[in-house]
Design goal:
single chain, alpha/beta, Rossmann fold, EC 2.7.6.1, metal-binding, transferase, magnesium
């Protein structure tokens, strides 16, 4: 006699509540009930208001700075562990602190490794994330990591644009692998930007490897922070004869003067996912939801089905 698989339970960290509601809707269940108590000094305590004993629990929350977002995820994982949940999956549409994935100079931390260890210690038995800043971060975990690619939501959008003379570009050497994957899917040429930084978030010089004259260019990156690289790359490409320049960036961190830079740039549009909520609206920024992607993968994980198709560019 076979028993029906009990429903999974989905819970949202406050920073990703809007996305979590969309994921739950795509999944076909209601979000679980969590309340958060806050002390006057800013300390907070999340509480599950329903039993999770023996259940598979998905906790959805991006860990972009400030540090409260990461702390909330850790507290939620710990609460689920202490409430005897059977499987606890940390769903991080954006895995924060990922730019610190190695020692690039003496006496600095490897924050991505530290975050991985904290998530596991707090109680995560599995991690689902999307477009990590560096693929090797998966190796920082001892638990299973499902690393999804936003290309599954971006490629249909690009194909619908039906752009002639399309060329895919990477804004730096590190993103060349991602750019080549997109170009293969779109059967297009590839251009690489070579940049030199004076310091973090400050570009001193940029060169172009490849020809963009008469092309419609799509820049591809995993995140957009200050938008300095993207807007500089767009300027260089228009100067070199590109017809139009668009950018696809999975995670819209958009700090500092990013919104102003994008509005005043030569970018036709910036296409992002809702892994991080936008701080403000912009006519040039188009949001494509990743909710269906995460819902499909979470359901497949719960039902012990293959999700390998979601790993492909």
């Amino acid at each position: 006699m076979t028993h029906a698989l009990p429903d999974a339970k989905l819970f949202a960290c406050s920073q990703s509540e809007t996305l979590a509601k969309k994921i739950a809707q795509e999944y076909g269940i209601e979000l679980g009930n969590v309340i958060t108590s806050t002390y006057s000094d800013g300390e907070f305590q999340p509480s599950f208001e329903e039993s999770v004993r023996g259940d598979r629990v998905f906790i959805i929350g991006s860990t972009h700075p400030g540090s409260d977002h990461l702390m909330e995820m850790l507290l939620m994982l710990d609460a689920a562990k202490r409430a005897s949940a059977r499987h606890i999956t940390a769903v991080l549409p954006y895995f924060g602190w990922a730019r610190q994935d190695r020692k690039d100079k003496p006496r600095v931390p490897i924050a991505a490794k530290l975050v991985a260890k904290m998530l596991e210690t707090a109680g995560a038995t599995r991690v689902i994330t999307m477009d990590l800043h560096a693929d090797q971060i998966q190796g920082f975990f001892e638990k299973p990591v499902d690393h999804l690619f936003a290309s599954t939501v971006f490629l249909p959008y690009l194909q619908d644009l039906n752009l002639a003379n399309l060329t895919v570009a990477s804004p730096d050497m590190g993103g060349s692998k991602r750019a080549y994957a997109y170009s293969k899917a779109l059967e297009s040429d590839v251009v690489i930007c070579y940049k030199q930084r004076a310091k973090a978030n400050v570009i001193s010089h940029m060169e172009l490897i490849g020809d963009v004259e008469g092309k419609n260019v799509v820049l591809v990156d995993d995140m957009v922070d200050t938008a300095g690289t993207l807007t500089k790359a767009a300027d260089v490409m228009i100067e070199r004869g590109a017809i139009s320049v668009r950018a696809i960036c999975t995670h819209p961190i958009l700090s500092g003067n990013a919104y102003e830079r994008i509005a005043n740039s030569k970018l036709e549009e910036l296409i992002v996912t809702d892994s991080i909520p936008l701080k403000q609206e912009s006519q040039k920024i188009k949001v494509v939801s990743c909710a269906r992607l995460f819902a499909d993968v979470m359901k497949a994980v719960h039902e012990n089905k293959s999700i390998s198709s979601k790993f492909l560019m």
